[in-house]
Amino acid sequence: MEIKVVQKVMAENDKIAGEVRALLAARGIYAFNLIGSPGAGKTALLERTLAAAADLHPAVIEGDIATTADAERLARLGVPVVQINTGPFGGECHLGANFIRAALDELPLGGVRTLLIENVGNLVCPAEFDVGENEKVAVLSVTEGEDKPLKYPLLFREARAVVITKTDLLAALAFDLAKLRQNLAAVNAGLAVFEVSARTGAGMDDWVAYVRRNAGCA
Amino acid sequence: MEIKVVQKVMAENDKIAGEVRALLAARGIYAFNLIGSPGAGKTALLERTLAAAADLHPAVIEGDIATTADAERLARLGVPVVQINTGPFGGECHLGANFIRAALDELPLGGVRTLLIENVGNLVCPAEFDVGENEKVAVLSVTEGEDKPLKYPLLFREARAVVITKTDLLAALAFDLAKLRQNLAAVNAGLAVFEVSARTGAGMDDWVAYVRRNAGCA
Question: Do A39 and B145 make contact, defined as CB atoms within 8 angstroms?
Fold first, then answer.
């Protein structure tokens, strides 16, 4: 019984994700679904990305269980942003496609080329859900340890790119970047890998160029 | 239909959690359920705790989606440890009471006074599940940001204590400990709060004394 209901929920999600994908394609909008642990630096990455590239013609959907703090941070950059709070819906640990469909109704989509979705901070559940994005991007900070791709493999299998954040902290850590890259390659050899520091801006150019290229804004 | 099945799953979990709690009480074992994001430093905290306090007469249950890396780290300390991998069970994002009941069958419980459970790295889902523990402990690293109690309130409401980890990195961060303490108090004024560095050992004495006291090993 439980399995049947889960299958039904997933089938319903996939149906809505297909509708979201068709809606975005019809408007020429490319969507990134950013997924990472709480505190991995997803919002800081978005802030830097948006500040660096007005030519992305971006819009943002922020997912959190509670608070509108992240949406407020990004709205300061003059970008259209909608905050989803899953708290009233049982504190859901991920964004489902239904949330994205609802959020798109609230966004002024005219002229938008790039949709940046920041999922709920969670390395597990969001990886299981198609929300109609064109690609999932894993966000992993160097403070989380080299072993995370092996311990949470689904996200790194599902993602097309991974952004390694907080590289400015490497000097203060016993962290082996080569080992992390080896673990990433073991899980998904096709991953595009970026190393960035939102604090110093290091590595942001390569990442932003990737976003621009995939979104067709190059 | 979905809600009914979820209720049934939770009711079944709570029933098993009650059995686990009774089994532990009958043996005089006190159980901590450690919950935090991937990379929050839960395993390093356990390593330091176990090394500092043989008089806890500890046993450990390690939860991960994949790999036995954490159990291997702890087994080196000569402590009875069982690794649960949720990967074969749909990659579950949390430990349910059924996993704990099964793990207890594999542990030599004679003489054990303290059970330390390290949950799957996730700030969301594990907070929803009673696994038969005596108390939940939130583990939050300073690299994750001051806002986490507000954005992921359930865990901090359910926990009796929070261990703030990686304080050795404070010098490299723009992190406001007073602000974090304020946010913790806003969510749960009754939390016992500890600040530790597993790297330097700072603050470990207070935390270990708390574990000892609650486990009745003082």
Answer: yes
Estimate the crossing angle of helix B204-214 against helix B42-52, to 10 degrees. 70
> Which amino acid type is present at position B42?
K
Confidence tier at A4 by pLDDT (50, 70, 90): low
Number of domains in chain B: 1
Q: Does B76 touch chain A (CB under 8 A)?
A: no
| Residue whose C-alpha is closest to residue A201's, from A48, A50, A78 | A48
Chain B CA closest to residue A145: B39
Domain that holds residue B210: 2-215
CA distance A117 to A131: 9
| Pick from A168, A157, A127, A105: nearest CA to A34 | A127
Q: Which two tokens stand for residue A214?
A: 């995939």
Nearest residue of chain B to residue A66 (CA atoms)? B151
Q: What residues pair up with B141 in beta bridges, in sequence order?
A: B165
pLDDT digits over A157-186, tens only?
999 999 999 999 999 999 999 999 999 999
Q: Between residues 162 and 181 of chain A, which touch chain B (CB distance below 8 Å)?
A: 166, 168-169, 171-173
First to last CA, chain A: 49
Q: How is B71-85 classified by DSSP, letter by letter?
A: HHHHHTTT--EEEEE
pLDDT per residue over B143-202, tens digit each?
Answer: 999 999 999 999 999 999 999 999 999 999 999 999 999 999 999 999 999 999 999 999
Measure CB to CB from residue B150 to each of A8, A66, A153 and give the nearest one.
A66
Domain at A183, CATH number: 3.40.50.300
